[in-house]
Specification:
There is one protein chain. The chain is mainly β. The protein has a single domain (about 10-195), classed as Jelly Rolls, CATH 2.60.120.260. The protein is built from one helix and 13 strands; from the N terminus they run E-E-E-E-E-E-E-E-E-E-E-E-E-H. Strands 1, 2, 3, 5, 6, 8, 11 and 13 form an eight-stranded antiparallel beta sheet that branches. Strands 4-7-12-9-10 form a five-stranded antiparallel beta sheet, with no helix packed on it. Strand 9 and strand 10 (about 140-145) form a beta hairpin. Keywords: Signal. It comes from Bythopirellula polymerisocia.
Length: about 220
C-alpha cells in the first residue's frame, strides 16, 4: 500500500518529564485518547484499548510507571496503549478508531500523538510504526518511523482537505506496528477552517482600499 509522508515533527523526551504541546484549532473527540481507561496500578497491563478496535495483531493498555522497560513515565497520565505485531511475518498489528465526524471541505487537520518502544523492543531494521488519517477508509495522509527505545517522541501529521474528493466521508485514525511492540499515547486531532481563496482575496482588496482611503484623508488639503 502506498503511503504518503505528509508531515513529521518529533519532540524527544529528555529525562523524566515531557512537555506535550496542545493541538491547534478545534479538537475532534477521540475516545480514550491517552489510554487511561481502564485505570491500572503500576506495572499492570490488560489486553484491550477501550474505544479502539484491533483489526490485525493484538495489543493492550499498560501502566508503565515503575517499570524496568522504560526510562521515563507515561507522557500523559499513567497508561500507554501498545500494539504487538501479527504472528504472520510481514503483517503488522493495527488499531483503529472511527471518529463519528466527516471530512470538512477547505479545512486543515493536525494529528498529534506520542510513540515509543520498551527497552529491548526497538527497531533494528525498517519501519516500526505507521499512523494514518482516513476518510471513508481512504488514506488522506500517513507517517512512518522507527521511534525511540525506552522513551517517547511526539509525531505530527498534517492534511489540507482543499480539493479532496473524500469530503463528507467519516474520519478515522489508524495505528500500526510492524515490530514486536510499539506504545502510543496522547492522541489529538484538531481541525482549522481554511479561508476560501475568493474570501481571502476580497478581504485583501478591502484592506487595501481602506488603507488608500486613510492615506488620502491624511494628505493636506
Amino acid at each position: 500500500m502506498k503511503r504518503i509522508l505528509f508531515g513529521f515533527a518529533a519532540s524527544i523526551c529528555v529525562g523524566s518529564i515531557m512537555h506535550i504541546p496542545a493541538a491547534n484549532g478545534a479538537l475532534i473527540t477521540i475516545v480514550n485518547h491517552s489510554f487511561e481507561d481502564p485505570s491500572l496500578t503500576d506495572g499492570v497491563d490488560v489486553v484491550d484499548w477501550n474505544g479502539w478496535n484491533f483489526t490485525l495483531g493484538t495489543g493492550g493498555t499498560w501502566n508503565i510507571n515503575g517499570n524496568a522497560f522504560w526510562n521515563v513515565p507515561a507522557p500523559d497520565g499513567n497508561n500507554v496503549g501498545y500494539l504487538t505485531n501479527s504472528l504472520e511475518p510481514g503483517i503488522p498489528a493495527e488499531a483503529t478508531q472511527s471518529l463519528d465526524v466527516n471530512l470538512l471541505a477547505n479545512s486543515s487537520y493536525k494529528l498529534l500523538f506520542i510513540v515509543g518502544h520498551p527497552i529491548g523492543f526497538g527497531a533494528t531494521v525498517g519501519t516500526e510504526f505507521t499512523a494514518d488519517l482516513r476518510a471513508g477508509g481512504n488514506i488522506l495522509a500517513s507517517v512512518s518511523g522507527t521511534g525511540l527505545e525506552g522513551s517517547f517522541q511526539q509525531v505530527q501529521l498534517l492534511f489540507d482537505s482543499t480539493g479532496s474528493s473524500f469530503i463528507g466521508q467519516e474520519l478515522s485514525v489508524n495505528f500500526y506496528s510492524s515490530q514486536p511492540q510499539t506504545a502510543f499515547d496522547s492522541v489529538q486531532l484538531s481541525v482549522t477552517t481554511v479561508p476560501e481563496p475568493s474570501s481571502a482575496l476580497l478581504f485583501a482588496f478591502g484592506l487595501a482600499a481602506a488603507m488608500r482611503f486613510r492615506r488620502k484623508r491624511s494628505l493636506p488639503q
